[in-house]
């Protein structure tokens, strides 16, 4: 059999470690009727049961201000999970609805209707939690998930604190006996001042180890695998520095527009929505120093060191854009200003490109170019590392007229994998070089499990592992870095819209990276391997 026709096999596959079984608990979702709950949070719980990663003694309480009953809430959640399963069942048998998993969840659900600011709601909740503890054997453990607009973060945590619902009891050794944890969705603040104010407010009711600031980007396997790739392979770490790396590009490109979130996006924009959280999370994993261990404290300390070493962004090295009408994936789309609930004269950016620096021994002088945008030509999230050029002198008496750079690319979405581009000699008597790529794709090596991106994060909350969650100091550093650009962008741009939907962004983005010795962005559309 030809080697290329053999089935792919893992070189070494020790028995898979079983995950820690979470302690019994109740999850309380504020914003139970919302899209986030239906599309991500509850489907993630459903998938966790399928993977035997939910505690047997588990209860789920939904809270919202709208009319509903437990039966009505249960039915709406089932309709969503069923539609998601049916969408994928034709391609993946594993995605078909699992009646056992749904029965497990549905039998443990209850719904409370109330105003998030009403103290009476929290008295009802306290009674419900007591019932879960006594009848459901949850041991008093509880997770409060804030799947609500950010204006409710402070008031809900204030009310939970006033009602005594986030108070933890401890063993004689000081470990939590009955734990209470709070999950907070982004955006965590809108600028440095609001982030500091929110941290100060919630820390009056909670300890830092009770707070889980969630970023769904970090639930992706490839993102989590970056640290393992770096530190488990002696091949890469010796060249992971300013001596060997020319620059780093981080791209988060989307084909979608604002998807009905016009009101939210008008208050946010691309920079606030993506950079201090998603983009910086990727950057910190690439740039962090080796931790002393893979525990949460060691890893988060090293990430925090990266942010602390980053000076505030110079607005001269920041570019913004807004999409006009165009064609994306062969479909005509309207301009941002024509989207629902968007100001027809809006000056909100849908694209941002930045040059970031890290002033430490490993990275001094290595630029990190980051860009994110909506309505671009293709969906593509990647971290691309360009190594410094090899000396050309050895090829001066050959037909070789250029040496292409070596790239190491960590692909996050839509396909997860790692590729390495390098030069080889073409077969034949003439010294002629060609750039080739070695490529690893997760889908080729590992079975694909049903996943919405929140499973790992919710599981980590249940076992109390904060590794993938931002600390207060990290959040504030992130806003400190981008604050000068936020200030500069308060003035309206003169040229919006300045890129066509379906393109690779505004021309000013190419000019930004080109200022540094003629560097260029990698194409947004992922490169295809040559055939034949």
Describe this structure in words.
The protein is of the alpha/beta class and 532 residues long. The protein has two domains: 161 residues, NAD(P)-binding Rossmann-like Domain (Rossmann fold, 3-Layer(aba) Sandwich), CATH 3.40.50.720; 291 residues, Dihydrodipicolinate Reductase, domain 2. The chain is 32% helix and 20% strand. The protein has 14 helices and 20 strands. The strands form five sheets. Strands 10-14-15-9-16-17-18-19 form an eight-stranded mixed β-sheet, sandwiched between helices. A hairpin with a 7-residue loop joins strand 18 and strand 19. Helix 6 runs antiparallel to helix 13. The longest helix is centred in the first third of the chain and has 20 residues. The chain is globular and about 85 Å long. It starts with 24 loop residues before the first strand and ends in an 18-residue tail after the last helix.
Shape: globular
What is the overall number of helices? 14
Low-confidence stretches: 1-8, 89-94
Estimate what percentage of residues fall within beta strands: 15-25%
Q: How would a textbook summarize the main sheet? A: 8 strands, mixed
Rounded mean pLDDT is 88
Radius of gyration: 25 Å
Q: Per CATH, which architecture of the largest domain?
A: 2-Layer Sandwich
Overall CATH class of the largest domain: Alpha Beta
User: Class by helix and strand content?
Assistant: alpha/beta
Number of domains: 2
Strand order of the largest sheet: 10-14-15-9-16-17-18-19
End-to-end C-alpha gap:
19 Å
Percent helix: 25-40%
CATH fold-type name of the largest domain: Dihydrodipicolinate Reductase, domain 2
CATH homologous superfamily grouping of the largest domain: Dihydrodipicolinate Reductase, domain 2
Task: Say how many strands there are.
Answer: 20
């Amino acid at each position: 059999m030809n080697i290329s026709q053999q089935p792919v096999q893992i070189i070494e596959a020790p028995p898979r470690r079983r995950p820690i079984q979470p302690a019994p608990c109740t999850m309380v979702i504020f914003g139970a009727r919302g899209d986030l709950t239906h599309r991500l949070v509850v489907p993630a719980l459903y998938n966790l049961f399928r993977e035997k990663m939910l505690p047997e003694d588990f209860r789920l309480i939904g809270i919202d201000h709208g009319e509903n009953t437990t039966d009505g809430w249960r039915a709406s959640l089932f309709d969503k999970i069923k539609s998601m399963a049916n969408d994928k069942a034709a391609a993946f048998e594993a995605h078909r609805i699992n009646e056992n998993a749904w029965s497990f969840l549905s039998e443990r659900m209850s719904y409370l209707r109330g105003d998030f600011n009403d103290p009476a709601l929290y008295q009802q909740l306290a009674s419900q939690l007591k019932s879960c503890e006594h009848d459901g054997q949850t041991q008093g453990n509880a997770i409060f998930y804030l799947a609500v607009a950010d204006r409710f973060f402070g008031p809900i945590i204030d009310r939970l604190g006033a009602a005594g619902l986030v108070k933890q009891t401890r063993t004689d050794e000081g470990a939590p006996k009955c734990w209470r944890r709070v999950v907070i969705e982004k955006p965590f603040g809108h600028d440095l001042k609001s982030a500091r104010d929110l941290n100060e407010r919630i820390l009056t009711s909670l300890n830092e180890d009770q707070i889980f600031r969630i970023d769904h980007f970090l639930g992706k396997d490839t993102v989590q695998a970056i640290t393992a790739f770096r530190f488990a392979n002696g091949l890469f770490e010796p060249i992971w520095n300013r001596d060997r790396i020319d620059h780093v590009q981080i791209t988060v490109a989307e084909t979608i527009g604002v998807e009905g979130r016009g009101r939210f996006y008008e208050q946010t924009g691309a920079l606030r929505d993506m950079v201090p959280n998603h983009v910086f999370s990727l950057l910190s994993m690439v740039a962090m120093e080796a931790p002393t261990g893979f525990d949460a404290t060691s890893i988060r300390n090293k990430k925090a060191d990266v942010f602390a070493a980053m000076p505030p962004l110079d607005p001269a090295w920041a570019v913004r854009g807004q999409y006009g009408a165009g064609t994306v994936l062969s479909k005509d789309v309207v301009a941002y200003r024509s989207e629902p609930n968007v100001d027809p004269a809006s000056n909100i950016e849908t694209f941002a490109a930045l040059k970031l620096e890290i002033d430490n021994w490993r990275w001094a002088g290595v630029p990190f170019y980051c860009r994110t945008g909506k309505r671009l030509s293709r969906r593509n999230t990647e971290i691309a590392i360009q190594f410094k050029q090899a000396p050309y002198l050895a090829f001066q008496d050959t037909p070789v007229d250029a040496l292409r750079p070596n790239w190491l690319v960590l692909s996050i979405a839509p396909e997860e994998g790692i590729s390495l581009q390098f030069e080889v000699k073409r077969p034949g008597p003439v010294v002629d070089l060609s750039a080739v790529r070695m490529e690893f794709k997760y889908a080729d090596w590992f079975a694909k499990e049903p996943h919405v991106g929140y499973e790992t994060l919710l599981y980590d909350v249940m076992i109390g592992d904060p590794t993938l969650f931002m600390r207060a100091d990290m959040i504030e550093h992130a806003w400190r870095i981008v604050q000068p650009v936020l200030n500069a962008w308060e003035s309206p741009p003169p040229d919006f819209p300045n890129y066509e939907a379906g393109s690779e962004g505004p021309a000013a983005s190419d000019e930004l990276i080109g200022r540094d010795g003629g560097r260029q962005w990698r194409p947004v559309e992922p490169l295809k391997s040559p055939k034949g």
